[in-house]
User: Fold this.
Amino acid sequence: MFVSHDPIGVLHIAADGSRKLYGRQDGVTSQQFTPNGIALMPDGRLMIANSGLEGGVWQVDRSGDCRPFLMEVEGRHLYPVNFVLADKEGRLWISVSTCQVPRAKAYRHDIADGYIVLWDGKTARIVAEGFGYTNECRLSNDGAYLYVNETFARRISRLPVAADGSLGARETFAELGIGDYPDGGTFDAMGGYWLTSVVSNRIYRFEPDGRPRLMFEDADPAYVAMAEQSFKKEGLTAEILYADAGKTLNHIASIAFGGEDMRTAYLGTLKMNCFPTFRSPVPGVRPVHWNWTF
Assistant:
């Protein structure tokens, strides 16, 4: 298992429980280097989305060397990079949450300057923009659509994908309500889209037609009410967004399926030092990197 490990980079947890850190070891602070989304590449490199002030996509090889991979596209410095997704062709889909510095300025409903970058193996280009804080993005099981979680627009958008990686017109797949701020997402084998929400500590499963089903909730009503009041007035602050939430779980931020039958769901959180898991009623989809040999 590979997981983001702030502020170093990536923590590798082997099947026997042993651990190894890959990433920066030069005393860097989490303000500058905040590893968020990670992706395995066909050659074994790890790509890291840096949501810290340095921004950019960083790469780590198996020797542990960590260095910048992509810091600027079309004259824009990539800050803050939220997520990197490797597809079956080895291309990278990169979500940049906002152009605001610091990023907390974009914790509002009226700012939509996030964008998606595609690295096709040779060059990188911006393929879509105008998102309300771009978070995780995922390709549908057939590769026909790119789904984009917009945290502070509180919706899931999707865009058709052309053969060359160009994206078509955006459409709203689903909208979220009170307390819900979409963060991570993934598909299951039945085409359902699973979504995690920070603040409300909820997990949803959306049918292919966008119908939602609440699968789990550990919301703190007082905290949700405080966050909603702030969001409606002046936007969320970092202090409110990262305050403790929930009785059992604390800010569910990501979800991934694994195990021999792909029915074990692993949850990433913003503030816990463990990995909550549960058994899913439907199996997930094998990650593309399971088909690669390093």
Q: What stands out?
A: The radius of gyration is 18 Å. The first strand starts at residue 2 and ends at 5. Residues 221-233 form the longest helix (13 residues). The helical segments are 221-233, 238-241.
